[in-house]
Amino acid sequence: xxxxxxxxxxxxxxxxxxxxxxxxxxxxxxxxxxxxxxxxxxxxxxxxxxxxxxxxxxxxxxxxxxxxxxxxxxxxxxxxxxxxxxxxxxxxxxxxxxxxxxxxxxxxxxxxxxxxxxxxxxxxxxxxxxxxxxxxxxxxxxxxxxxxxxxxxxxxxxxxxxxxxxxxxxxxxxxxxxxxxxxxxxxxxxxxxxxxxxxxxxxxxxxxxxxxxxxxxxxxxxxxxxxxxxxxxxxxxxxxxxxxxxxxxxxxxxxxxxxxxxxxxxxxxxxx
Length: 272
Prior knowledge:
alpha/beta; SIR2/SIRT2 'Small Domain'; 10 strands; disordered N terminus
């Protein structure tokens, strides 16, 4: 079942008073009312509505900078300096970003006990800022709002690291063990977080409704979780502005902005 297809030319107008949009809202709300255990899987598309650019899109971060491989970060002090310089250059953007209607709708469904886990490819901490408890978050690519030691895995706030970096031109060593400090994100060439991957697989197998929000579903192994859920007989909803490789597997396919759709669908549900 597919609703909200892009009109010719590929542009989406304001959808909220559109007939297709209302049909999409009704279909999504119906699946939410039927579900008992919902898992949400979010990608960059939900955060672009909060002003954080998609890394891969034209004008995105990776069109301006070549990614720094994890091995290069570990072996090269210059690569580490450049990595931290890039991170602090984006601090104002991350600090100014606030959860949008999509994040708040997810947090409300978590509060009601309908969403059991939020699996995210995003690193911006906006789900937590919207009120999703940390224990119900599964961050596949880490989190850019803190730093982590590569040796002892101690976490540290960014502000003291930024102050030291600006004074000395190099990032500080870990205050606990002297190891290399890195943002808490997963870099190219770095292994995926084993615990997060295991939790994501378990959640995907246990749910009866799996909702993809704003992911291209191109990045593996993260993009395998909708397939895991579908093979475990969960219904699959894909809400994204563009087509994905898994569209043919979806029980409901909607091409739409995420925030207005999720807000409207939650409003259609019975009051808690």
